[in-house]
Write a structure and sequence with these properties.
This protein is an alpha+beta fold. It has three domains: 2-109, RRM (RNA recognition motif) domain (Alpha-Beta Plaits, 2-Layer Sandwich), CATH 3.30.70.330; 128-311, Sandwich (Jelly Rolls), CATH 2.60.120.1520; 334-578, Vaccinia Virus protein VP39 (Rossmann fold, 3-Layer(aba) Sandwich). It is built from 14 helices and 29 strands. A seven-stranded antiparallel beta sheet has the order 6-14-11-18-9-8-7. A hairpin with a 2-residue loop joins strand 12 and strand 13 (252-258). The radius of gyration is 31 Å and the shape is globular.
């Protein structure tokens, strides 16, 4: 048994040697020094400073315990080699902590990290205020006793339980419906409003309350409360267990410990420009008078008070504001449309063509169904054929494709497809020459209504009388499992917060919102990011269509008759027939 333990100890030490050299450029030693590293216990493993101190204190009075952030190991600095050797022999392979089956493993090191290199930022974001002991212990107990988490008024989210009073918070839109009030805020909570005015007096009373119930290990994703939905100030009262709330704005990060019975006030910049969230974990890393340690979480309940706001937001933080995004300058005229499409459509697809080809294989079922209605010998034109995924199969029809991207055309030709390089606004084909056309996810890349109508007119021109056409465009109305939701989840870099932004196209004098992953489309004209495999993020211009918008546009083209309009996985779709008599 001793021999087996010795081999395991040696493996742990060798592993620590390589890890420490890589992380901190500190070498482990075979001979005793005054520095000891605990290889398998640190802040990441949930080690509390006091737990290790209770092991050492009975034997040694003077030492320094160093617990690096985000590491699964820690260090002890002794003031003599003799003391270090004594504790090493006591700990290594002999001591189990926190009920673990594995004992602590130790090794000597040449040095330890600087004691002062783990200072935390103490600068709170502007507009953020923490009031400790905002209520008494008795008041806390009273508030907790009033909540019944088993009744129908509570609901379970993925990471916590919630209750709403005044107005229900709608998590699908991050708003409330001001025309649909729910159960009013209970009268026995009214004393809080009097206390609010003592610390943060505002000319309104809070009329919306969300109560969150967090078990250990649960949290809430980083987010900025929707600007236009609520007034400036948001108040959050913490009950039960303490926890760390993380605030972030661009490269600035601040971690704030919320003690029980404390009130967090968010206003101004902290409310409008900093994201806040709670990381889902069982322990928080906190700073004490003796140093950094871990603090286990218990059950926490928060009371978040807001005031419903009607109308646009008037803040000064446009890059995070839904009102500023919705009112962004999106007036695109014919003079700048071509430049925008060249920069944010054509150039982008040339750059992402290989990755696009790798991720576009499966045909959409309803497009395949349309193709199966064609007769033997029919000529099919795929306008905006991309990587040619609809030019496969159907050997009984003659298929040709065209696309504006030169690199996508090369990919298609390497696959043996009959394709040409062309713009959908000026198709290089004679009038009345093809029996059927598909135009899938193309017209939404055109940046003016006139150009979108012109593209549909071109489809009508080359289509034979009695020929038929299928058009797909992205819908502004998105369902949970739509194709767009899948594509955006795959293509977008995972955001570290829920802040939104706009992109100013300075060369064209236009500002467009950048769509945020896993959110509804809030504007009809926007930039949608694409993350290319191997690095590189690109923005593509989209005009997303509202219901009836595509059919209205098609109805204005004289030669076309609308046969069917339907919604398919995040797209508005229309099947058109060309009139048998040409006017």
């Amino acid at each position: 048994m001793e021999k087996k333990l010795s081999k395991k100890s040696h493996r742990k030490q060798r592993k620590a040697y390589h890890r420490l050299l890589r992380d901190m450029d500190i070498k482990c030693c075979d001979n005793p020094t005054q520095y000891v590293m605990i290889c398998n216990a640190g802040l990441v493993t949930g080690l509390q400073r006091k737990t290790l101190q209770d092991v050492i204190d009975p034997f040694i009075d003077k030492y320094d315990l160093i617990m690096p952030l985000n590491k699964s190991y820690c260090f002890i600095k002794f003031y003599s080699v003799e003391n270090a050797t004594y504790i090493y022999n006591k700990i290594h392979g002999n001591i189990n902590i926190n009920g673990q089956n594995t004992p602590l493993y130790a090794t000597f090191t040449e040095s330890v990290p600087d004691l002062n290199c783990y200072e935390w930022s103490s600068n709170l974001p502007s507009g953020l205020k923490l009031v400790e002991n905002f209520i008494t212990k008795d008041e806390e107990n009273m508030l907790l006793s009033t909540i019944n988490w088993c009744n129908e008024e509570s609901s379970d989210l993925k990471h916590r339980k919630v209750k709403h009073f005044g107005y229900e918070f709608q998590y699908n839109s991050n708003r409330v419906d001001p025309d649909k009030p729910v159960t009013p805020i209970p009268k026995n909570y009214q004393f809080l409003k009097t206390l609010f005015k003592k610390y943060h007096d505002v000319p309104y009373e809070y009329d919306q309350l969300t109560i969150n119930h967090y078990l250990p290990g649960q949290g809430i994703p980083p987010h900025i409360d929707t600007h236009s939905a609520f007034e400036d100030s948001i108040l959050s009262l913490s009950l039960g267990s303490p926890c760390i709330m993380d605030f972030k704005r661009e490269n600035e990060k601040v971690a704030i410990l919320l003690p029980p019975r404390s009130l967090l006030i968010m206003s101004g910049e902290a409310r409008y420009a900093w994201s806040h969230g709670i990381c889902p974990r069982h322990n928080d890393i906190v700073k004490t008078s003796s140093g950094v340690t871990t603090q286990p979480r218990g059950t926490r309940v928060s009371f978040t008070f807001r005031k419903i706001h009607k109308g646009d937001c008037c803040c000064n933080f446009s890059e995070y504001c839904d009102t500023k995004q919705n009112n962004a300058t999106t007036l695109i005229d014919s003079k700048i449309a071509l430049g925008i499409e060249n920069s944010y459509v054509h150039d982008v697809y040339n750059k992402i063509s290989n990755h696009f080809d790798e991720t576009r294989h499966k045909q959409w079922p309803n497009v395949t169904k349309f193709l199966q209605t064609l007769n033997m010998g029919d000529i099919l034109l795929d306008v905006g054929c991309g990587n040619g995924k609809y030019l496969y199969q159907n050997t009984y029809i003659f298929k040709v494709g065209c696309d504006r991207s030169y690199n996508l055309m090369k990919i298609c030709r390497n696959k043996g497809f009959e394709v040409s390089l062309s713009d959908c606004l000026h198709l290089p084909y004679k009038d009345n020459i093809v029996d059927a056309i598909i135009c899938i996810a193309v017209i939404h890349h055109l940046s003016t209504r006139e150009r979108r109508k012109q593209a549909i007119s071109e489809l009508a021109r080359v289509l034979r009388p009695n020929g038929k056409c299928l058009i797909y465009v992205w819908a502004k109305e998105q369902e949970k499992d739509s194709i767009q939701t899948t594509y955006l989840r795959y293509n977008l870099t995972k955001k570290k917060d829920n802040s939104s932004c706009t992109q100013e196209l300075t060369e064209y004098g236009v500002t467009l919102p950048v769509h945020e992953n896993r959110t509804k489309f809030t504007c009809k004209d926007m930039l949608v990011p694409w993350k290319r495999k191997g690095g590189g993020n690109y923005l593509r211009y989209y005009h997303v269509f509202e219901e009836n918008e595509l059919s209205q546009l098609c109805s204005e083209v004289p030669d076309l008759v609308i046969k069917e309009v339907y919604y398919d996985q995040g797209n508005w779709c229309v099947i058109l027939h060309k009139k048998s008599e040409i006017n």
